[in-house]
Amino acid sequence: MVLTIMDGTGNDTPAIGIDLGTTYSCVAVWKHGHIQIIPNDQGNRTTPSCVAFVNGERLIGDGAKNQVAMNPANTIFDAKRLIGRRFSDSKVQDDMKLWPFRVIQGPSDTPKIVVSYRGEEKEFLAEEISSMILGKMKDTAQTYLGKIVEKAVITVPAYFNDSQRQATKDAGAIAGLNVMRIINEPTAAAIAYGLDNKSDITSKINVLVFDLGGGTFDVSLLTMAEGGGTLEVKAVAGDTHLGGEDFDSRMVDQCAQEFKRRWNKDLTGNKRALGRLKCACEKAKRILSCDILTSIEIDGLHEGIDFSMKFSRAKFEELNIGYFVKCIETLEACLNDAKMDKSCVNQVILVGGSTRIPKVQCMLQEFFERKELCKSVNPDEAVAYGAAVMAAKLSGNTDKCFQDLLLLDVTPLSLGIEVKGEVFDVLIPRNTPIPTKKSKFHTTCYDNQSEVCIKVYQGERARSVDNHLLGMFTLSGIPLARKCVPQINDCFEMDANGILTVTSEIVSTGATEKLTITNQNGRLSTDEIEKMVKDADKYKQDDQEYKKKAIAFNALEDCLYNMKHKMKNIENGERLLKMEHVVADTTKWLQQNQAASADELQRMREYIESICM
Ligand code: AMP
């Protein structure tokens, strides 16, 4: 593959849109006047968000997913459910019970994924695993376009908090991408809808995007101006931990219970069995979106026992009805936030693979009093499509369809600081349009207080500690005075990515302090990102070295095979004897030196060729 950068400024390098999903990822680009979804090396338009470490090789995407049942402890998925979260987070603790791979508590409560790679235990942050998936999407685009790709827009669930957004941005940086913008998944889907239906949008409409994917659920209510160009998000709501994976887990539990009932054996400690069950349940779930009955059959599931079980759509719905009801409640909350009656919603757009579940569609339709749901956007690709549109616009593409594209998003959760009595004092309420900047004056709590600790939280609870702590810093050097006299100006600034900067200023002296979210709060430092970029390069080199070795290994085996074939036609006794010796010795050498380097393998091949030719 030949890669070229088109000009020195990099202005002509293509910018891609990446939907980094919990279970699948998708990449798209604007080319020849329209968006193209880029197929991966297997020809698939979406790539499993899965990374595996196997026999010294690193596999990303389809290759990783295909071998999960054989290698469950070293196949990592669901990194998006970990990113930007703490190890002690109850959701992480719950997920860990179902994951066949190991997650440990790293410094400052950061979760670390442990795998065995090349005979050693390696620890990875969720950002690193996500960066590997992003790297794969970048490579997919580079191969397709034949050009270096550096710029990208990456999507995140609308309901991701600041830490999760920051961590996703960091993952992009580790993958060597310049992340031009982080945009919300439902907003990206709405962009796709707007562009595709430009001519049909003849007046301002209210659009509801219902996005139920593999791991996350989002609802966004937007208004779209005539022509679909200007999108104004009115409200978002969601759950960063609700999606197809949860439905699969319920099915897995059900199967494990059934197995226990029939055989009185508990398979929940058998990682390989759980991995195989998970794959089978996911397939069965998809079938149940079309058929009303299917069966799950796995040979030798646990302790050599074959498993077979009928699964009906009714059973699937019964198991997951609680989740579906939660989706509708969240939808109601979103409409309430926007102070909009459901009758005012003109279009309901379905995004995310899990919106194919008939019960979900049926409940939605019932909620909207039998309104037709819009299924014209591809639920698996719409997000990447919209991200690619945004990427093209941000990279200065002057095509006329980008000229009137204007995106006004909102902050999903309230932001504020802790004040006396652990009270959460909100500076930016949820659903405020972004970018935004809000300031508020605070003061000291006691006489001669020379410093204050500013604790920044995100969430909707009245008590600060019940929210998500984003970071804290100390503002010192406050001139001594009676309590409540000094004035401190706290300024919250949220950029278009939904990422926050907090600055506090002592008004009388002008001294300021800025919040840099430190590692203590889950954010990576620049040095750490740099180190991970180097590590990522190293893994890439390892992958290349592995491929080189595999090619050399195959070439030597081929050579031996050809020699053996050739020997059949040789009558010269001495030459034949010599060849037999060399082939036997090399075959033995190959068996005993499986770890030989590519150079050694190549030298060996050259040696036997020189003797036998
Ligand atoms: P996404 O994150 O949008 O790629 O959605 C992936 C999720 O959608 C996974 O949990 C899939 O199992 C699920 N999914 C895909 N197709 C179907 C289907 N036909 N029926 C039910 N769930 C599906």
Automatic annotation (TrEMBL):
<dbReference type="InterPro" id="IPR018181">
    <property type="entry name" value="Heat_shock_70_CS"/>
</dbReference>
<dbReference type="InterPro" id="IPR029047">
    <property type="entry name" value="HSP70_peptide-bd_sf"/>
</dbReference>
<keyword id="KW-0067">ATP-binding</keyword>
<dbReference type="GO" id="GO:0005737">
    <property type="term" value="C:cytoplasm"/>
</dbReference>
<protein>
    <recommendedName>
        <fullName>Heat shock protein 70</fullName>
    </recommendedName>
</protein>
<dbReference type="Pfam" id="PF00012">
    <property type="entry name" value="HSP70"/>
</dbReference>
<dbReference type="InterPro" id="IPR013126">
    <property type="entry name" value="Hsp_70_fam"/>
</dbReference>
<dbReference type="GO" id="GO:0042026">
    <property type="term" value="P:protein refolding"/>
</dbReference>
<dbReference type="InterPro" id="IPR043129">
    <property type="entry name" value="ATPase_NBD"/>
</dbReference>
<dbReference type="GO" id="GO:0140662">
    <property type="term" value="F:ATP-dependent protein folding chaperone"/>
</dbReference>
<dbReference type="GO" id="GO:0044183">
    <property type="term" value="F:protein folding chaperone"/>
</dbReference>
<dbReference type="GO" id="GO:0031072">
    <property type="term" value="F:heat shock protein binding"/>
</dbReference>
<dbReference type="GO" id="GO:0016887">
    <property type="term" value="F:ATP hydrolysis activity"/>
</dbReference>
<keyword id="KW-0547">Nucleotide-binding</keyword>
<comment type="similarity">
    <text>Belongs to the heat shock protein 70 family.</text>
</comment>
<dbReference type="GO" id="GO:0005524">
    <property type="term" value="F:ATP binding"/>
</dbReference>
<dbReference type="InterPro" id="IPR029048">
    <property type="entry name" value="HSP70_C_sf"/>
</dbReference>
